[in-house]
Design a protein that fits this description.
By secondary structure, this protein is mainly β. Strands 1-3-4-6-7-8-9-10 form an 8-stranded antiparallel barrel. The chain has 2 helices and 10 strands, in the order ααββββββββββ. 13% of the residues lie in helices and 46% in strands.
Length: 138
């Protein structure tokens, strides 16, 4: 029984650690809308309306993230502000390391596919993103 519990614990630990390949990181490119923030104590904050959406562009191990504002006509309003990104693989994990004129920080990629993105920051807050749905007047 002890061996089974140890095996389950090891699998659970390893499943949280994943290094993403350059091909997998291509899924990061594009628009992402935050839906949920999960705090270290398990409490959650839902985002039902977002005035901004994150736009990522990563090529190889470099890129940027911008905040963009969706408009009623389906376009996005942008400004000149962006965060430089470096992709770092260490200890079996993939991190996005951000740098601006004012700060530096990193977030671990916990999940990434064509529809979902989960990032965990250095304060252990998990941010859950989805691809945004275009605005329509119905």
């Amino acid at each position: 029984m002890k061996k089974l519990l140890l095996l389950v614990a090891c699998v659970a630990f390893l499943s949280c650690n994943k290094t993403y390949t350059a091909e997998e990181l291509k899924q990061l490119n594009g628009y992402w809308e935050i839906k949920l923030a999960e705090m270290p104590d398990g409490t959650e904050k839902e985002y039902t309306v977002n005035p901004t959406i994150d736009f990522f562009e990563v090529k190889g191990d470099k890129g940027f993230r911008k905040k963009v504002m969706p408009q009623f006509d389906g376009t996005y309003r942008v400004n000149d502000l962006s965060e430089d990104i470096s992709v770092i693989n260490e200890d079996g994990k993939t991190y996005l390391s951000y740098k601006t004129e004012y700060a530096e920080w990193k977030e671990q990629i916990l999940e990434l596919d064509n529809e979902n993105l989960v990032l965990k920051n250095e304060q252990d807050i998990e941010y859950h993103y989805v691809k945004p749905e275009p605005f329509t007047l119905k």
